[in-house]
Amino acid sequence: MTDFIRDFWEGQAKRYGASHEASWGDSYAIALEIEAIARHLRDGDTVLDVGCANGYSAFQQLDRCKLKFLVGVDFSAAMIAEARKAKVARGLGERVEFHEGDVRGLDFPDAKFDVVYTTRVLINLPSWEQQVRGIAECLRVARPGGLVVLSEAFWEPLQLLNALRALKQLPALVEHDFNRYLKKTRLEELLRSLKLPFEIDEFSSVYYLGSRFLRELVTDPAAFPGYSNPINRIFHDIEREYSGGGFGIQQAYVIRKP
Fold first, then answer.
1. CA–CA gap between residue 129 and residue 142 (Å, rounded)
2. pTM over 0.90, yes/no
3. Which H helix or E strand runs over 166?
4. Are 1 and 102 in contact (CB under 8 A)?
5. Which among 107, 111, 146, 196 has most CB atoms closer than 10 A?
6. How many CA atoms lie within 13 A of 156 on its CB side?
7. CB distance 258 to 196 below 8 Å
């Protein structure tokens, strides 16, 4: 990862501490992501959270499931420092550990974890080749029969949303400088070439349709800073009951390791 990406996340940790804002301001999308990942965790699992940031999501997974243990890794030292402080404050003991680490070279033995999941970390890598290295590492440390869940941002839904926005003369949504969205077609070609069975959890499609398109047609977005527009909450609630349509930039690929 290039220095400016690391510097950005170091700054986020120092600015926001234990808040979800350290990794993303969109608390509704984070909540949907946490629920999506939780659907694939079981009591007694050993779990690796790759790109754990300040531990905000990891702690919620521990609250939801009786995991044997969870390890969080992040390449930002400041994020890991915040996660460790929060762990002590929560009195979690040995149930969870946090370490500095790089998805391209995870410091764990083969087949150590029942579930390995990424949380918007592959998109911080500057090229597809490096993203493939990260995916390979996640697969390596998952046990046979275990799961790798890639919760990432994808290019094709971004284009679909922008096509809709263009119909109403709205400005296009763009990637941040520190992001390189994955292409679904490329990822699926890779997984098929490796003969890896997978399913797609499209956990945010209706939410994105509402929060990145419809809200700008029925409210004044300037009146609601950040992600505070009430439309976001409404479509978060709808999303929990209904999804689909291909508009969700955030999706989870759930891979079963043979």
1. 20
2. yes
3. helix 155-167
4. yes
5. 146
6. 11
7. yes
